[in-house]
Amino acid sequence: MARGKIQMKRIDNPVHRQVTFCKRRAGLLKKAKELSVLCDAEIGLFIFSPHGKLYELATKGNMQSLIEKYAKYSKEIPGEEAKVKQAKDLDLKEEIKLLKHEIEILQKGVRYISGGGDAGAMALSELNVLEKLLETWMYQVRSAKMDTMVQEIQLLKNKEGILQAANMHLQEKIEEQNGMIEFAPMLTSIPYPLTTNNINQCPLTIPSNEIYQF
User: Fold this and answer.
1) Smallest Cα–Cα separation from 47: which of 29, 68, 72?
2) How far is CA 12 from the centre of its chain?
3) Phi-psi region for residue 76, left (φ > 0), alpha (ψ -120 to 50) or beta?
4) CA atoms within 13 A of residue 123's CA, in its CB half-sphere
5) Element (H, E) at 45
6) Exposure of 105 by Cβ count < 10 A (0-12 exposed, 13-18 middle, 19+ buried)?
7) pLDDT (tens digit, 9 = 90+) per residue, 32-75?
8) Within 10 A of 130 (CB to CB), how many other CB atoms are there?
9) Residues 6+ apart with CB under 8 A from 49
């Protein structure tokens, strides 16, 4: 018979709670030992019971050596974080420096273009950088232009589809109205049942024995 799923909540019954604690504590310690043997790992484990009793496990050496090792590692972590932060700050400073250099080159380029292209105003390296920047901008401008053109073409196609649908709808309405106009004369051309020929064929007779007074 399959066991039901255990709900993860506090066990209200104190006897059941204590039994579960003992079973699971033993299982946890066993799993920790197996992990240490299989993977050659150093494991330190603290367990405090609901009554405050301490259970501990140190798979290699003793708990004090593991605590000292953990304390030493914890002190080294802030140092590593500081190194990482320092490296990020240096990268940011380098990026800011490059951006300032590009801005200066762009300003010189604007003055160079505005002044009619005085070759002595900019060095060859600055002209090369300006050329690369202009090429990059031209590529971005062309890409944005192509995206805009594609969007406009798609919009025109959508409008074309709407106009075609409206045209078909109007054409159906016109054909329907033309059909009604053609059907109207057909109704008026049907002969009436009472005609002069019918009167001659079936004359109206009045009996002689009936006298009508007016």
Assistant:
1) 29
2) 45
3) alpha
4) 5
5) strand 44-48
6) buried
7) 999 989 998 899 999 998 888 888 998 887 888 888 888 887 77
8) 19
9) 21, 25, 55
Two tokens at 2?
Answer: 């399959």
* Residues forming beta bridges with residue 55, ordered by sequence position: 47
CA 170/CA 164 separation, integer angstroms: 10
pLDDT digits (tens, 9 = 90+) for 100-134: 888 888 887 777 777 665 555 677 777 788 788 88
Helix (H), strand (E), coil (C) string for 23-48: HHHHHHHHHHHHHHHHHCCCCEEEEE
Written as six digits, the tokens of 7 are 């709900």
Q: Left (φ > 0), alpha (ψ -120 to 50) or beta: where does 203 sit?
A: beta
At a CB cut-off of 8 Å and minimum separation 6, what does 11 contact?
Answer: 17, 20
Distance CA 171, CA 168 (A): 5
pLDDT for residue 211 is more than 60 = no
pLDDT tens profile 124-175: 777 788 788 888 888 888 888 898 999 999 999 999 989 998 899 898 888 8
